[in-house]
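Worked example 2:
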Amino acid sequence: MQKPSPQSRWERSHRPPMVDTMPYTPEEIDESIRRKARSRSNLWWIFDLDGTLCDHDHRVSHILRARESGLRPDYDAYHSACIFDPIRKPEVTILNSIQMWSNHRTALCTGRPEKFKKLTEDWLEENGIEYDVLAMRPIGDYLSSAEFKRDWYLNDFKIHYPDSVVMGVFEDRKSVVDMWRSLGLTCFQTQDVPT
């Protein structure tokens, strides 16, 4: 019978920890690394919600019927139904890939009023959409979507994240796409929406 070889002091002190004594699972360690990397990154992507991440076609009828009848659109009914939106898979896949595989950060900027924030957050969580910033229209703000988003970008986002570099923006409406591009940002138009 052979004697086990004596271990040096270095070998005893540098033994890998036993698996059952590790305080975190590999998944928790991976998530922790991703969070730390994102928190240090100054590289951003901006995504619109309605018509970009969410398919809002079933809600647009609230707006179109009113306009055809010469009535004021019921925007509360339109926004309240957001919880039933299916996702737009290509755009959500891109956003989730950015969140999972890079240290880039994501901001969601929507013209929805803040009073629909809980519904919006519930929809995002239910659909597994992670993000770093959610910007919504303040109650009482009646600027156009392009004006609201421009104001948010210049007077909120750039002040809170002055060293940020926006890699790209995803948007559906041409007027808003044109606004982002006028600021020198790369903007990907996700649908051919003229207004």
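The longest strand covers residues 105-113. Helices lie at 9-13, 26-40, 57-68, 75-80, 89-101, 117-126, 145-160, 174-182.
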